[in-house]
Amino acid sequence: MNFRLIPLFLLLAFGANSQENKSYRIRTIAFYNLENLFDIENDTLIFDDDRTPEGKDHWTLERYNTKLDHLSQVLSEIGSSTSKTSPDIIGICEVENRRVVEDLINHPNLISKGYGIVHYDSPDERGIDVALLYKKSVFLPTSSASHRLLLINDDGERNYTRDQLIVGGLLDDEQLFFMVNHWPSRSGGEARSKPNRMAAAKLSRRIIDSVQRLDADAKIISMGDFNDDPNNDSFKKILKTIGKPNQLEGQSLYNPMEKLYKQGIGSLAYRDKWNLFDQIFFTENLLHPEEGKYKFWKTRVFNAPYLIAKKGQYKGYPQRTYAGGSYTGGYSDHFPVYMYLIKAIPEEQTAE
After folding, report:
1. Which residues pair with 278 in a beta bridge?
2. How many CB atoms within 10 Å of residue 98?
3. CA pseudo-torsion sign 24, 257, 316, 110
4. Would you say 327 and 313 are in contact if contact means Cβ atoms under 8 Å apart?
5. Per DSSP, what are the bridge partners of residue 268?
C-alpha cells in the first residue's frame, strides 16, 4: 500500500500532539466541475447537439483532446504541493458519459495513478452526470447507489436533473462514504430556482440519515457543485451545516468552506462576484476520530495561476473552455476544491 508521509512541522496546529515526533499519512479528497466534458458524437437521446463538430460550439476531436490534456493536468496537481501526488479520491461533474471519464483517467497525465470509476447515467436533459474517481491502490468500493432527484416545474412537468451519488468503501481499511453532487442551477434567477436546490438538500439529508440509521458513527464526506454558497438556506436550514467546530454536536455536519467564503474566497465568479458553489463538508466525527483513524486537516480552493484568465472580459476569473460564445481553450469555469485527511503512523511502520 503506497502512502505519503508528511513531517511534523506541517501539523503544528494539532496542539499537544505536535510536541511528539510523529509522521502522518495523508490522503487528498478533491472535487472538480469539469465544465461540459462531452465527446464529439451526437447522442439523439440528449441535448448535446452544440457539442459536436457540426454544432454551435464546433466541438472537434482536437478541442476534445485539448480539454482532456488540460483537465488531466489539473487533476494530477490538486493538493500535490503537500501530498506530492494526485488526489486519492476525486468527485467530478458535468461529464457526458462513462466513456469520457475513461478517456480522462487513461490520459498520460493520469494513467499511472491507477484510478477506478464509479459512474451512473443520470436523466439530466443535457446528459451530464457525476462520477467518483478513486485510486485502486488506496480505496476499495464496497457499495454504491445513485439517488434520483424528482422535480416538477411550474407547468406540472418533470424537470430532469442530476442524480446524487454515494459510494461506500474502505480507505486504507477504514470505512468511509463519499457523496458526489451537482445540484440544480440558478437558471431563471436565484430566488426562482431556490426550491429546486432546497429539494436537492432534502434528498442529501435523507441519504445521510439513511446511512447513519445503519451506523450512527458512519464517516460521510459530501462534495459537489451545489450552486449555492455555504450560507444559503439549503445548507443552513436543511442540511444544518455548521462552520465552527466548537458548535458541533453528535451527528452534526461540519462545513469548513464557511470560513473560506467569509474570507472572500470563491471557486467561480459571475458579474464580478465570487461564489463558493464547489464545497466539501462532512460528519463531525472526522474532526475527533478514534486514535489511529483518519481526521480532517484542512480544505482549500485550487486556484493555480495557470487556471486564471489573464485578459479579456473574464480576466481574473477561472479560465474556461468557452467565453462569450467563443472558444478560448481553457480549463473550466470552476476552480477545484480539496481537503486533506491525515492519520498518525506508528513509529514501527515509518521505519519499514
Report:
1. 225
2. 15
3. positive
4. no
5. 275
Q: Distances from the Cα of 143 to the Cαs of 62, 72, 139, 210, 253, in angstroms?
A: 37, 26, 12, 14, 22
What pLDDT is recorded for position 18?
A: 46
Q: Which three cell numbers stand for residue 240?
A: 444544518
Predicted TM-score (pTM) of this structure: 0.94
Helix axes 98-105, 61-77, angle to 10 degrees: 60
What is the pLDDT at residue 290?
Answer: 86
What is the 3 state secondary structure string of 258-299?
HHHHHCCCCCEEECCEEECCEEEEEEHHHCCCCCCCCEEEEE
Within the chain, strands assigned E span: 4-6, 23-37, 89-95, 115-119, 129-135, 139-147, 151-152, 158-159, 164-171, 174-182, 220-225, 241-242, 253-254, 268-270, 273-275, 278-283, 295-301, 322-323, 326-327, 337-345
C-alpha cell recorded at residue 352: 519499514
pLDDT for 324: 86
Q: Read off the C-alpha cell for 189.
A: 434567477
- Would the pLDDT of 17 be above 80? no
Residue 352 has pLDDT above 50, yes or no: no
Longest dimension (CA), the chain: 66
Looking at residue 21, its pLDDT comes to 62
What amino acid occupies position 51?
R
Cβ 149 vs Cβ 204: under 8 Å = no
Instruction: Give the three-class secondary structure for 234.
Output: helix
Three-class DSSP category at 214? helix
CB 31 within 8 A of CB 180: yes
pLDDT digits (tens, 9 = 90+) for 24-70: 999 999 999 999 999 999 998 898 999 999 999 999 999 999 999 99
Nearest CA-CA partner of 141 in 99, 103, 89: 89
- Can you tell me the distance from the alpha carbon of 345 to that of 114, in angstroms, rounded to the nearest whole number? 24
Give me the count of residues in the chain.
352
